[in-house]
Structure formats: structure tokens, C-alpha cells
Amino acid sequence: MKRIAVIGGGISGLSAAFSLEQNRRAGAPIQYVLYESSPRLGGVLLTERVDGFVIEAGPDSFLTEKQYAADLCRRVGLADQLITSNDAERKTYILVKGKLVAIPEGLMFMVPTKILPTVFSPLFSLGTKLRVARECFQARRKADLDETVAAFFERHYGREMVERVADPLLSGIYGGEASQLSVRAVLPRFVELESTHGSLGRAMLASRRKAESTPARPLFTSLKSGMQQMVDAIVNDLLPATARLNTRVDAIHRREVDWLVSAGAKSDTFDAVVVAIPAQAAARLLQANSPELASELASIHYGSSVTVALGYDQEVRSYLPPGFGFLVPRSEGKSLLATTFVHQKFPYRAPEGQALIRCFLGGTSNEDILQISEKEIVQIVRNELREILGIHAAPLLSRVYRWKSSMAQYEVGHLERLERIKNLRNQLPGLALAGNGYDGIGVPDCVRSGMSAVLHVFASLGLATTEPAAKVSQTA
Ligand SMILES: Cc1cc2nc3c(=O)[nH]c(=O)nc-3n(C[C@H](O)[C@H](O)[C@H](O)COP(=O)(O)OP(=O)(O)OC[C@H]3O[C@@H](n4cnc5c(N)ncnc54)[C@H](O)[C@@H]3O)c2cc1C
What domains does the chain contain, in order, with CATH numbers? Predict the structure, then answer.
């Protein structure tokens, strides 16, 4: 019987545990233990239900295009609970000089693919519009070196596109800055398009035309009762008593043939370990085993974020603009990074006739927000919503969630670092790494990383897996 420890009970660790359980049921000779330092499983996946509102403290959905999370939901019996975003209502605004300006139709991530909406959009100055036209003639380019997302998009569309679109989009997803994040790690598809087509506009237009023959799928998928459903269903599927809550692992040691895992005064031996915690925490656990690996892991930086949910009555609901919400460029000088009109983005989120607004603050440029009291954070948010949307009414409810060092920042050179991490990890038999620090920070990427970690562990223990081969991530 092989014993495997999973350290960290967020969605990455839970996905690894799920995969281990499937293998065990299929006859693999294994036992597993899931260590979680907090009193609950799920990590940043947490849903609260308050007075009929379904409030997401962390992620509210996952990208439909990346199937790993939806597939896992189906496997734990949630097929009929999957819901998709109301894409008929999909409209997003950017705050420009205090006013909300709709992102023009045809803007695919940061790339304009429709001429007229771009030409008439007040989002861009004449200079940027001319750059958009000129970009169509950009020559192919195969860059040898990584660069920042800001440098890449500035080369194509100029500074304004970076400030008004790229930066706010990335701060909404990573809590990070376009001037720090690696284009190869964060937007590899655009790097590929530049090398094959030169112009991103022409390339995206061509792929849009190709895609027009297949019906568009809604962009986001979630669950009727919130993301917590996914956590609860996975936990129900695990063997009872495999999860050790309130149990922080404070050391792991590779010995001659096995691993010693220590949590407080208790230690246990395992044949393999899946470390599914943030990379910086993983660095501390691995310091004694491989200082080089620990140093690489420690240099993956993390940003913090704060989400604020506000419930409102019918009156506020009736005068919100249509759409999913808005993004706030740093140059606007606000604390808000992004705001979602949750009841317009997804069904089942607010009681009939009421509104749920969710705001994001923090990110790498505003870590200080974590030090402020909840009351003050709500006041900052209310003041800014009053300035931007004219909301004077007091909310029916408010909730503040702080996520310290939760969002990995894939900085320039990230892919090369992953390669070094993989090589160093290979020197420690039975060790696998999972989590949002490596091959993607979205929920589907984390699911894939947990499952890939199990494949790696099985291979290193010489066990055959019964699990379908999830596309193996680089690191696992
Ligand atoms: C506010 C916010 C909004 C987001 N929105 C979206 C979204 O809409 N869509 C999307 O796809 N992604 C989103 N993400 C990203 C995504 O949710 C995360 O990247 C992902 O959930 C991380 O999962 P994880 O298991 O790797 O890490 P975590 O959720 O951080 O879990 C790690 C777990 O390890 C435990 N732990 C740490 N150290 C130890 C130790 N020594 N011993 C034992 N246990 C330990 C922690 O307590 C925690 O439970 C969002 C993230 C945040 C913070």
C-alpha cells in the first residue's frame, strides 16, 4: 500500500484528492491524507448565502472554454447545477475620466476586431484609432525573449490601449500590473499569433470568422448555488476522515525512501507528497530538502485582494446600466479595480427585484487596503460607487473578504523559472507541486494542476492510473 499526502485543501489539493479517490476505488493500492491548515476546505472558493443573496467571497465562475472545472463538476454529480453567464447582457465598461464608457463591440480581450465600433468608440483617442488601423500591417515577429504584457501591447496599439484596457483587465484577473506580468506566461496565444500573423487584429479577425460557423458558448460557467457547491460535492466524494482540518503542515523531509510530514507535534510517513499550497508557502516547506528549489518557489510573487459584496433594493437595481460591470484604470485614482453587477451576470444570485454588486480592491499596487477596517473599506466602496454610479442608498447588506497573498503574479521569465522548478523537483522522488503559482491561476487550471500532480506521483511510484490523462501541466 502506498501512502500519499496532499498538503493544502483549496481547489488544487481537492482536485488531487478527488483523483486519488477515483484511483483508489478503481483498485490502486493507495491511502491518502489531505492536510488543511484552516477549519474549512475550499481555500479561496467560498460562497455565503445571506437573505436570499448568493455571495461569492472568492471566484464567482470559471472560463467555459477551459473544460477541466466543468468536467470535474459533472464527475461529482453537479451536471444539472452548472449555469452560464447571461451573455445576451454581456457588456463591460471602462471608467474614463469619471464616466463609464462601454468596451466597443468586437474588442477581443485587448484586440479590436471590428472597425466601425472601434472608430466611433469614445474609449480611444484618434491617435490610438490610427494605431489600430496601422497594426493591421504589422510584420511577423518571433521574439527570443520574454517581455511584459505592457511592452507587447504598446508595440501593437500604443500606451493608451495598455492603460485603458490591458492594465485594468489584468488587474481584474491577476490583481497585477501589465508592466510586470509576462506576456508569454499570461497571454501565450497572442505571442503565437504575433509570430504567425504579425498583426493581432488580422489574426483575431480570421479566427473570429472561423468561429462564426459554430455557436458561441457563454463566456463563464458557474453553479446555481455558488462555487462552494463544487467544494462540497468533491468533499462528499472523498473517503470520510481523509481530511485533517486545522492541521498546518510545518515541515516535510525527504528521507532515504519516504517523506516525513510534520504538523505540530505529530509526524507521519508517506511515499509521495502533493504540495498544493501557494508557491511561497511551498518554498518554506521545501527549504531543508532543496534550498535551490525553495529559492525558485519563493521568487514567485503573490498579490492580495479584497472583495466587497453589497446587496441593494429594487430602486438601485433599476438604474444600474445594463451589462456585467466595469473596470477601473489606475489613472482614475480610485481604490476600486473592478465592479460586477452580479445579478445581471448570473441567474440565481439575488432575490427577485434586488441587486448584488461585487467590488474588487487591492492588487499588487494597493496591498495597504488589507490593513484598513471593514467599516472603512465599505465606506470607500460606497463613496466610489456614489461618484461613478450615483448610488446614494445604503446597502441592505455588506460583506468584506480579504485574501492575503492569494493571486500569483507570473512575472517576466516565469516560464523559464517553471522549467528550473521542474528539474529541481525531479531530484526529489515522490514530490509533486500543484496550485495557482505555476501553470494558470484560474479555477480550471488549478483543477488540472491537482490532477496532473497525481499523474506525476503515480508515475514516480510506478503505479498505473485509471484516471483520464488530464493534459499534464508543466510543473506538477
Ligand atoms: C478574490 C478572488 C477572485 C477570483 N476569481 C476567479 C474567477 O472568477 N475565476 C477563476 O477561474 N479564478 C478566480 N480566482 C483564482 C482562483 O480562485 C484561485 O487561483 C484558485 O482557487 C486557487 O486555488 P488553490 O487550491 O491553488 O489555492 P488556495 O485556494 O489558496 O488553497 C490553498 C489551501 O492551502 C492551505 N494551506 C496553506 N498552507 C498550508 C500548510 N502549510 N498546511 C496545510 N494547509 C495549508 C490554505 O489554508 C488553503 O486552504 C480568484 C481568486 C481570488 C482570490
Answer: 2-43+230-300+411-461 (3.50.50.60), 106-211 (1.10.3110.10), 303-408 (3.90.660.20)
